Amino acid sequence: MALNISRRNPRLRRFLVVTAVVGASAALLAPIGVTPAQAADPYVSDTRPDLVPALSGYSSLWQTSGLNDLHGTVKDAPTLQWNDRVTSWINQHATKSQQFRALQNAAYLNSDGSGYDQSISIADGLGSTLGTLYAQGRINGDLPKVAALINSSNGTAGAYVSTSNAKAAFSYPRPFLNADPTASKVEGDTDACAPSKVNSSSLAPIRKGKSWADAKGNLKITRVPATVDTTHSFASTNVTLDPIYGESGLCTGGSYPSGHTTTAYQAGITLATLLPELAPQILARTSEAGNNRIVLGVHYALDIIGGRISGEVATASRWSDAAFRKEVLNPARKELVSYLESKCGARLAACIAKDTSYVNNPYAGAKIPGGTTQQVTDRKSALKVYTERLSYGFAPVSATTLSASVPKGAEALLRTTFPTLTNRQRRQVLAQTEIASGHPLDTTISSRIGTAPGSWQRLNLAAAMSATVQVRADGSVKVLSVGGKATVRRPAR
Fold first, then answer.
1. Which class for 192: exposed (0-12), middle (13-18), buried (19 or more C-beta within 10 A)?
2. Alpha helices, DSSP H only, in 107-239?
3. What distance in Å separates the CA atoms of residue 106 and residue 115, rounded to the nearest whole number?
4. CA–CA separation, 307 and 311 (whole Å)
5. pTM value?
6. What is the pLDDT of residues 118-154, one digit of tens each?
């Protein structure tokens, strides 16, 4: 979808870089910490959550050296081998068009106002027409409340948490790093990225002899070359798109969890709560933005799942804050709906009904290992693809029949989808739409002994936000179906 933007947002201004997101170069650094402007009006949720407990399932797969040097000990070789296999396959099979979309999603707004924001480049999740209108409104400054909330540079929700501490805590090497410390530096890379200084040698033993790696243990990853975006889809000027493999900010930083994916999900989940009518499509588009980090070969599938978890934790924290809901989130929803309806010329439901839904065919019809083609054509396929990317075909690593484990506060994410339900009922919806226990990063067992706050990994927000639920006479709810319009049925009187 081409989003024709005629002029730049006149309200763009310089912002301070307060924390470096791994995955951005010195020229394209993306801050995901809080800025002084954000701290002007304090909210309870301004004390940001610690991501490490929610991400702690990784510790059963990999034990870091503790030195934040990207070295450590493999604890679960089969799981990390699948991580390698899926990552290499996606990188090798993505279409040229998908590679370009991946470069677009990797872009952040520069400190001088050039480039474009990640929370705008997922616009087509709203559909062809509404996505164009949304992007135009963001760029032209017609959605100031939404922009202040959702942008990925310093938005109060879109740039809410930093992954820096989590990356250091797990310190896992990136997919494209050479496994051989004696290998020559790639031409054009900075000295800090030389294999003698940063490498994936700890993973070489589990890679040698595998079809997705070479004889020295290097994962088969093709670097996607930099290019220039001349489409003017998200900016009025041409924009250089560079995956920056050879920049120290990327190569020396931990791969897990993905910072870009975290910001994508902070923006995407927030946008889905502002427009729950389009939640499955918006969330599927958000999952594509995360998956695009694998397309570029800078992250693994587990990193993307970790980024989703981080985005869920962050957005739930904001929605759990009553004052922030009242003063920031609800006004942003009102602004966005009003804007879209005025530009579309009809009520939102009618605009959605006549629009062309978000579509995507990342691998030209080829099936990902253990999965499908991940093609999105409509609302139901959007839900299917989103659900598949919750686990990426990993084999279970623990019991698969454990009961639901809904993290405290997650129910707040369903407030706009089911405004007439209670928090208890919303939790029941989440519990009944969760995926099974036992997948990598699932913390169901840990949460039961008090070392993790429920299992964010199991949440299926696209299913929950498209559920038809029946309210029983005793006040409990039963999910009847998912993938349609979110609906509440109540007992006949």
1. middle
2. 128-140, 144-150, 164-170, 204-207
3. 11
4. 6
5. 0.91
6. 899 999 999 999 999 999 999 899 999 999 999 999 9
Does one domain contain both 362 and 407?
Answer: no
Question: Bridge partners of 479?
Answer: 469
Q: Among 366, 394, 422, where does a domain finish?
A: 394
What is the C-alpha separation between 290 and 304, in angstroms, rounded?
6
Closest residue by Cα to residue 102 from 12, 223, 212, 213: 223
- Residue-range definition of the domain harbouring residue 418: 398-493
Query: Is 444 among the domain residues?
Result: yes
The single residue listed with the structure tokens 């480039």 is: 115
Which residues contact residue 299 at a Cβ distance below 8 angstroms, ignoring those fewer than 6 apart? Answer: 23, 87, 174, 175, 255, 258, 260, 261, 293, 307
Coil, helix or strand at residue 189: coil
**Tokens describing residue 118:** 């990640």
**Residues 315, 320, 322, 324: what is their CA dihedral angle, to the nearest 10 degrees?**
-20
Q: Judging by beta carbons within 10 Å of its beta carbon (0-12, 13-18, 19+), is residue 442 exposed, middle or buried?
A: buried
Q: Which helix (H) or strand (E) holds 72?
A: strand 72-74
pLDDT tens for each residue of 141-191: 999 999 999 999 999 999 999 999 999 999 999 999 999 999 999 999 999
The number of domains in the chain is 2
Decide: 309 and 54 in contact? Cβ < 8 Å. Answer: yes
Q: Are residues 364 and 277 in the same domain?
A: yes
Among the candidates 364, 394, 424, a domain finishes at 394
Length of the chain counted residue by residue: 493
Would you say residue 338 lies in a domain?
Answer: yes
Judged on CB neighbours under 10 Å (0-12, 13-18, 19+), 369 is middle
CB 300 within 8 A of CB 306: no
Rounded Cα–Cα distance for residues 75 and 65 (Å):
12
